[in-house]
Amino acid sequence: MTADMPLEPRLRHVQCLAPEGLHHMAYWEWGDAANPKVLVCVHGLTRQGRDFDTLARALAGEYRVVCPDVVGRGESDWLRNPGSYAIPAYVADMVTLLARLDAREVHWVGTSMGGLIGMGLAALPESPIRRLVLNDVGPAIEYAALVRIGGYVGVPAHWKTISLGFGPHTREEWLALTRPQLAHDGDGFKPHYDLAIGVPFKAVTPELAAAGEAMLWQSWDAIRCPTLLLRGAESDLLTRATAEAMTQRGPRARLHEFAGVGHAPTLVHPDQIAVVRDFLLSASP
User: Fold this and answer.
1) Interaxial angle between packed helices 113-122 and 87-101, expressed in degrees from 0 to 180 and rounded to the nearest 10
2) Segment 246-279, tens digit of pLDDT
3) When you count CB atoms within 10 A of the terminal residue's CB, does the N or C end of the chain come out lower?
4) Are strands 129-135 and 227-232 parallel, antiparallel or unpaired?
């Protein structure tokens, strides 16, 4: 990063279309806005784009780094219809975002839900995604993990308790990850997302999960770009068996595991950033 590179991102908005009307999606932009090399980083279910501050600072010298707040989270609008909080709708929003960015070739880092959005976009014919990093997510998602996550979406809980899967962090790292997650609410704070994002999530049954898995494997097999798969070695969402299968079919992902981490690596530690950086900037597939 150059000496005059900003230490904080620029907040932008793009207008997107949903069945119930228009909404604005916020995104945080780092680096040179004229840089044709674009890196999009997309967060997990209840998180927001500021999760990637550390990674974005590390890569803003090489990329125009764009970190959206998926609709219903952070600075983005909330939807009137909770049923629209779904992966296909999120993919459509990202297509609109890429059109705004005028990005013809994109590198993508997606954590959990952000990885599923990236898979959906990368599987499309003529997708602009040229390199894909999936952070602790794959086509087969363990139903027990979905139940665990559904148990805290929209429910008051101790932030550090529900984030234990992130692995060890310093107090300062916890504070940096937590501050954007909270919004002022009178004399206190509340989660910085629409509690209704959990409505469709909690409606998932084992049968629906199985049907969704079949569709996700179809998407996986359609992806052609070089892909890096990150896994927390203690993850309950992405099993080792699923991760190994992802190295044998579709884009035949390169797999890297982080010891002592569950769901999901935060990509704030130097060793995690180095793995992502080396893959994105390497000349070979």
Assistant:
1) 70
2) 999 999 999 999 999 999 999 999 999 999 999 9
3) C
4) parallel
Residue 61 CB neighbours (<10 A): 14
pLDDT at 151: 65
Check: CB of residue 222 under 8 Å from CB of residue 196. Answer: no
Assess whether pLDDT exceeds 80 at residue 179: no
Instruction: Provide mean pLDDT across the span 81-107.
Output: 94
**Cα(202)–Cα(76) distance, integer angstroms:** 22
- Alpha carbon distance 183, 74 (integer Å): 9
Q: What is the DSSP string of 121-181?
A: HHTSTT--EEEEEEES--S---HHHHHHHHTTTTS---HHHHTGGG----HHHHHHHHGGG
Containing 186, the helix (H) or strand (E) segment is none
250 touches 123 (CB < 8 A): no
Residue bearing tokens 């107090």: 171
Task: Evaluate if residue 93 carries a pLDDT over 60.
Answer: yes
How does strand 188-191 pair with strand 182-185? antiparallel
Rounded to whole angstroms, how far apart are CA atoms 19 and 181? 27
Helix, strand, coil percentages, rounded to 5, for the chain: 40, 20, 40
- Least-confidence region, from 41-50, 106-115, 194-203, 232-241: 194-203
Contact 235, 262 (CB under 8 A): yes
Query: Which pLDDT score, from 0 to 100, does residue 163 have?
Result: 58
